[in-house]
Amino acid sequence: MTLTQSAPDYSPGHWRSHVAEVLTRARNRSRLLTDSVDDDDLVRQHSPLMSPLVWDLAHVGNQEELWLVRDVGGRAPVRRDIDELYDAFKHPRAERPALPLLGPAEARRYVSEVRDKVLDVLEHSPLEGRPLLQQAFAFGMVAQHEQQHDETMLATHQLRSGGAVLDAALPPLGVRLPAAEVLVPGGPFTMGTSTEPWALDNERPAHDVDVAPFFIDTAAVTNDAFMAFIDAGGYDQPQWWSAQGWVHRQDGRLSAPGFWERGGDTWWRVRFGIREQVPPDEPVMHVSFHEAQAYATWAGRRLPTEPEWEKAARWDPSTGRSRRYPWGDEDPAPEHANLGQRHLRPAAAGAYPRGASPLGVHQLIGDVWEWTSSDFRGYPGFTVFPYPEYSRVFFGSDYKVLRGGSFGSDPVAVRGTFRNWDFPIRRQIFAGFRCARDAQPEEAS
Ligand SMILES: [Fe+2]
Fold first, then answer.
1. What is the Å distance from ligand 1's center to 149 Cα?
2. For the whole model, what pTM was predicted?
3. Partner residues linked to 402 by β-bridges
C-alpha cells in the first residue's frame, strides 16, 4: 500500500474526456428507460405524481440546450419555441400530459441534435474563465440533471402497471455485521464542501459543525424490522406519529410501505412489474418521512439529523478530516456501493464491506435514500449558483433532506456531501432510513 496520493488531474483534457463519458452514460440510461416501453407508455401519465416519460426526455434535452448550447457555447437555439413547455416551474407534473409535447420520435430527434452540438461545444470550450466553465461545472451540472431525471423515470417505471420491461442482475449477498450500531464521538467536523468540482450550490461552503455524541445504525432498517412495527400495530397507534404524520397516515389510509400488499400471512410487493414476497433482509423502501419517523419513535430511537448523517459518513477519526465518500476520496466503483441502476433493488446489510465508513457504518451511499430529521436549508455562507431555482426556492420547513443516493442514483449524482430534498409524505422515491439515538454520558467515550 502506498501512502503517497497523486494530485487529481484537473486539466481541460481530463475534463473533456470525463464529461464525454458521463454524458454518454446518462444518455444510454435515458435511452434504456424510454426504449423499453412502447410509444403509448411514453406519452401516458402513469401517476399524477409523475410526468409522462416523453416529457422527462425532452426536458433533459431542453435544459442541456439552454445551459450548454446557448449559454456555454453561445450558439443559436435549436428549438426556442419549446422552452416554455419544458419549464418545470411553469407546468406542474399533473398538467404536463395535456401540453402539446413533442412526440416520442420528435423528442428523440431533438435530444440527439442537442447532444451533437454539445459535444462540439465541449471540444471548443476553454473550460476556464467564467465560474460556469471552470472544471467543466456546467457540463457536470447537466450530466447530474439527466441522471436525476433518469432516477425519476425509474420511479415512473415502478409506478406503471403492466409486466416487467427492465432486467438486471441481483446485488451481492449480505453479510452479518459485527454491530447493529456504532458510537460517533462528539465534537466538530467539516460539513459540506468548498472544493468538490461538481458540488451544487446547496452543498457549499465547507463549514464546521459541532455534533454531540450519538449512536447510529450500521445498516438501514430492514423489511423484517419494519414488519415488526406493522405487526405491533404501529400504523394504528397515534402515539408513535407526529401530529402532521398521523393526519397524513389517516388521510392516506397508510398501513404498510408503498407497493406492499398482504396475502394471508405473507407480505408481497410489486417491484418493476414483478410480484414477489417481500425479502426480509433488504432495506425497507417506499416509506415516507412520516412512516420512518413513526418507526423510529416506536423503536425508542430517532432519525439522524443531517449533520449526524454526514459526520457518520465522512469523518475520519484518524485524521480529523472529512472524506469525499465513506470509503475515502476515490470515485464510487462497483465494489463500494449499489449505485447506477446496476441492480433493480437495494442490497442487504453487509453487501458492500469495502464501502463502509471509518467508524464501521455500512451502505450510507447507494441502496436507498435515507430520510434525515432535518429541514432543507442553506448552509452558513450559502450563495446562489448558478440560479435561485436550483435550490434556494426550496429552502424552508416544507422539505426534509434525504442523503446517500439509491440503487437508482448514478455515481455522478451522489457524494458524501450531496443533498436531496422532498416532501415528508413522498413514497414513490427509493427512500428508506436508518435510526440513531443520543449517547448517554457514560456511553460517550
Ligand atoms: Fe429538471
1. 7
2. 0.96
3. 371, 420
